[in-house]
Design brief:
Transferase(Phosphotransferase), domain 1; 3-stranded antiparallel β-sheet; CLK_kinases; 12 helices
């Protein structure tokens, strides 16, 4: 059994597919065990559609969350997933590659097997709607997929990258980007895994930046001052033009209902919350030059401390 990605016969998609094949072959050469990234088996051109043949994997983290009614993963599982994800990012960065589109949809469990465990958060048992069980994967092994947007370090990096919810502030402000934009995405993903929902649920730039400040505190002045001509409209007198520049009352409400990062984590995590908060604060630093690198993040106590339970 294999999985085949069929790319539509449109010039820009074909170009992305060619990049993906090149990147996959390069990664495969250097990751002989195929332990981090999905393995390419072959590729061919069929009636102008590029078809890439992959090993068969399980569901994405997003699909798993969705089928679990967006219930949070246990923190010990988040630790295992975070470690593997950062190992993959460290491996790619070491090869001078930036993924640029890390998100739960692009991280797949290797196996689709799961077990059902009862959830004891209900007053009556069994609960009437049958939701009293949650799924846990039998194995925490994951692989990263979708290298069609991967960038080489030496290329120009001033265009927009990343899927909206996982997009770093330097990308929105047009300051140019590099390896740290992947690290920001990892931070957003880890929050989502331990809370069950995307951290920044928005489709608009100013609202997105305001949400970041709401969760993480004020953005550094030097970054706001350097915003490019497209983004300078979000800044007034050296600070974010918020809430004055908001597009609607709903937008302001959406920002105000967000909690600080510490509170989001502590609502969902029973043990290791302090270590996880500290790690996330390092991954979600506004200034990309102060953000943790993947190897540094892997040495963080959240991963190295001897925790009571292992997933």
């Amino acid at each position: 059994m294999v999985a085949i990605k069929v790319v539509r016969s449109i010039k820009k998609y074909r170009e992305a597919a060619r990049i993906e094949v090149d990147v996959l072959q390069l990664l495969g050469k250097n990751d002989r065990n195929g332990s981090r990234c999905v393995q390419i088996r072959n590729w061919f051109d069929y009636r102008n559609h590029i078809c890439i043949v992959f090993e068969m994997l399980g569901p994405s983290l997003y699909d798993f969350l969705r089928k679990n009614n967006y219930r949070a993963f246990p923190v010990d599982l988040v630790r295992e997933l975070g470690r593997q994800l950062l190992e993959c990012v460290a491996f790619m960065h070491d090869m001078r590659l930036i993924h640029t589109d890390l998100k739960p949809e692009n991280i797949l469990f290797v196996s689709s097997e799961y077990i059902k465990v009862p959830e004891y958060k209900f007053t009556s048992w069994p609960p009437k709607d049958g939701t009293g069980y949650k799924r846990l994967p039998k194995s925490s092994a994951i692989k990263v997929i979708d290298f069609g947007s991967t960038a080489y370090e030496h290329q120009e990096h001033n265009y927009i990258v990343s899927t909206r919810h996982y997009r770093a502030p330097e990308v929105i402000l047009g300051l140019g980007w590099s390896y740290p934009c992947d690290i920001w995405s990892v931070g957003c993903i880890l929050v989502e895994l331990c809370s069950g929902e995307a951290l920044f649920q928005t489709h608009e730039n100013l609202e997105h930046l305001a949400m970041m400040e709401r969760v993480l505190g004020p953005m550094p002045q030097h970054m706001l001052k350097r915003a490019d001509r497209h983004a300078e409209k979000y800044v007034r007198r050296g600070r974010l033009d918020w809430p004055e520049g908001a597009t609607s009352r709903e937008s302001i409400k959406a920002v105000l209902k967000l909690h600080r990062l510490q509170n989001i984590v502590m609502q969902h995590v029973d043990h290791s919350a302090g270590d996880l908060i500290d790690l996330l604060q390092g991954l979600l630093k506004f200034d990309p030059s102060s953000r943790l690198t993947a190897p540094k993040a892997l040495r963080h106590p959240f991963f190295t401390r001897d925790h009571y339970r292992r997933f």
